[in-house]
Amino acid sequence: MEVFRKLDGLAEEIQRSQPPVDLWRKFVYCTSLTGPVLGSVDHMQPQDFEKVVSPVSVAHFSQYKLIRLLLKKLEDLNFHICKPEGLNDEPFRGGELLMGHECVKINATSQSVNVTASHLKEGKYTERNISCNILVGTDGAGSTTRKLAGIELRGEKDLQKLVSVHFLSRDLGQYLLNERPGMLFFIFNTEAIGVLVAHDLMQGEFVLQMPFYPPQQSLDDFSPKTCKHLILKLVGQELSDIDVIDIKPWVMHAEVAEKFVSCDNRIILAGDAAHRFPPAGGFGMNTGIQDAHNLAWKIAALVKGIAPSSILHTYETERRPIAIFNTALSVQNFRAAMAVPATLGLDPTVANSVHQTITDGVGSILPSGLQRAILDGIFTIGRAQLSEFLLNEKNLLGSSRLAKLRRLFEEGKSLQLQFPAEDLGFRYLEGALIPDSDSVGTQEPPTGRRRDYIPSSDPGSRLPHMNVRMLSNSSSEACISTLDLLSGDKVEFLLFIAPLEKSYHLAVAALKVAEEFKVSVKVCILWPTDTVKGAEARSKTALAPWENYIDVAEAKESSNSSSWWSMCQMTEKGAILVRPDEHIAWRAKSGLDDDPILEMKSVFSAILKV
């Protein structure tokens, strides 16, 4: 959401369009959507609404709706959306979005990448050749770009096979909205098991995920009629308005591409093409958005002649470790989600082992029909653990399982929704940055539990958020975030300093050196709240003739609030250089004693790889 704030009001549009937070803050565990609730977990804490660590809150928004908004933003920027039926053989002018096209062939040379794209037009597949300097493959988990480039995946394959059923039911949405609102519903009963994702209760839009065990089961076993029947079993009562939109099988993997950049920095992978992991914790879309945010300014720096092509390799250096970490965390989240059925006597690992034995082990010699019958019989016996006779407080075993389930929820050991430390606190340890000389280049392993974000100014970290007030417009008391001080539409660095003589000298040096490196730098002079008188005049004198600077004052929430420099764990003699993607490229914790010109030349040379 912080990234989307840079896209001309996109974050605000998402917040207006998403369901109210009270409709998706909970995960509900039940025997049916209208039956007994086994437990629920509220994933929103008071601080999540206070915007202390970020200027924007988390959002729950479907990907296909986000794509519509992004396409509209691109059209506003004069990009032309081209559908296959409207294309002719004229060469592209640039700025086209080719809908309905598939990359089928890649030929990378030392000078360019030639792509053959196929599209269906008037009932026939037609190919078109496209030449480009850089090809970014963002074509999903089954990425053709990745396969054609010969890039392998590393990690765990086939964690789980599922069938996804996208359906609409306003009646169900209205019932849940009134009776038990939530984002995810984990449903366990003797006839069916599934996870229902409530994309929008007000619109009645849902996606149901159900276990799938081929080859004993096939997609034909999940016809629209069968899916409606299963939905009703999970709901627990009749619904007359179920409209099944789509039914798709898919496989859950936990894999990361062995490399993100190949073919002499000309082919790049991002998003699900570069990493695919369980949809547990929202890391799939968030990690992909972060990929694009990291990559965008580097491609722009290359295109504008600011940096050589080697700058693109820092994308892999920085993003691949984050993808590996998020993959491990997503697997932990998936295991946490499986802890609930395991507690109820339905250990998914047992089901998978039985299926593997039937498919690849001794059961593989049996006729397919008998394999199917055995599998169905075992699953029926397993689901019997969920009968009302067994799963109740009066039954000794059932009471024990329910008590264990309550402890699981209370101790935060079930699937979690929010991960502030990972969403905001991820840090690049090397790449287009300069680590502190005393930096410890290690990363804590994932815990699978919610951890709060702690602001940091370590190089590679996201710039901390603090509300500040613009002094150039003192008539306005409106506050903005430190994250808003960077321009979102050009390759520009931001240098934070305090209003001290040595710091002004450093700022002048940075502005001079940046001019030599053909890159833009804006200086931000951050004034304490009680010393703003005469600020603008002083900065104007100290930085003349340079005009690319801004004076701001801390806008503390209270007298107990930390100052900017204390929050960054630095002295006010220090300085922080921020990259165009709001990550810290370099800092001087307590100022510089050396020649600032030489220091800044070394800094920009290291960051831009020139």
From TrEMBL:
Domain of life: Eukaryota
Pfam families in UniProt: FAD_binding_3 (PF01494), Rng_hyd_C (PF21274)
An MF annotation (GO) of this entry: oxidoreductase activity, acting on paired donors, with incorporation or reduction of molecular oxygen, NAD(P)H as one donor, and incorporation of one atom of oxygen
Keywords, comma-separated and alphabetical: FAD, Flavoprotein
Coiled coil regions, renumbered to chain: none
Location of the region described as Disordered in the Swiss-Prot/TrEMBL record: 436-461
PANTHER family: FAD_NAD(P)-BINDING OXIDOREDUCTASE FAMILY PROTEIN (PTHR43004:SF6), TRK SYSTEM POTASSIUM UPTAKE PROTEIN (PTHR43004)
Protein name: FAD-binding domain-containing protein
Organism encoding this protein: Populus trichocarpa (Western balsam poplar)
